[in-house]
Specification:
13 helices; 288 residues; mainly alpha
Amino acid sequence: MKKQFQIFTEITKLRITIFVTITTMFGFIAATNSIGVNILLPTIGILLLACGSAALNHFQERKTDAMMDRTKNRPIPSGKISASSVLTISLSLIILGSLLLFIGSGLLTLAFGLLNLIWYNGVYTPLKKISALAIIPGSLVGAIPPLVGWVAGGGYLFDPQIILISFFFFIWQIPHFWLLLMVLDKDYQKAGFPTLTQIFNQRQLGRITFIWIVATGVTGLLIPLFQISQNEFINYSLFIAALWLAYKSINLLHQTQETSAFRFAFRSINYFALFVVLVVSIDKLFVS
């Protein structure tokens, strides 16, 4: 049983899909300034939909996964589970997640949930085999989950606040994908994927990545300006966190040959996104 559960968590990329679920909850809280039982169905629905999308990605990339050191031990290439079983699990999760989204929040929420799945599995996944710059349009998959939560909470679709929140997660997703691609550069080349080092040299990559990270910090500073967070202490904490992120990423301008610098920046930018979600949620639920 434990072995089956481990396989399930691997094919559904549970750590990633939980973060997708958290950003959906963040959108819901931002729209309603509250949290109650009505958040359950859209939250579980988006979690199942994201798990189904991740499993479908395992099925789609089973051949290239077998060529890469990082992924050759994944459940399908290592023979722990058949590709057809993963496809069945994926479709089951997608159908169940879609039903829960529709029942819990209606057709518009379901439409955005499915749009995210189509964008990730139907656009980004095949596009990254063609161009390393696919990560830019692919980063829309980070922007849509909070929008799903916002709509599920009854928020107006074109409200400037949700546009800014989605823009923040879009900007964050670019260096997130970008850094991952650089850390795993040789592995991706082995599987035949186009990589950023085929387009830019190391110095250019370091500078471009630093600019993306600073852009993420600056976008985070727009949150108080759009009155998404209103507490003075929380706004100052966002400012300090953005400064910390930029300061810690300066190494990218000097240590462009060091993979460890990219790994550290990868962790830092993800901690920053989690911090923004945490403090703004506290502001919405307990302070404002």
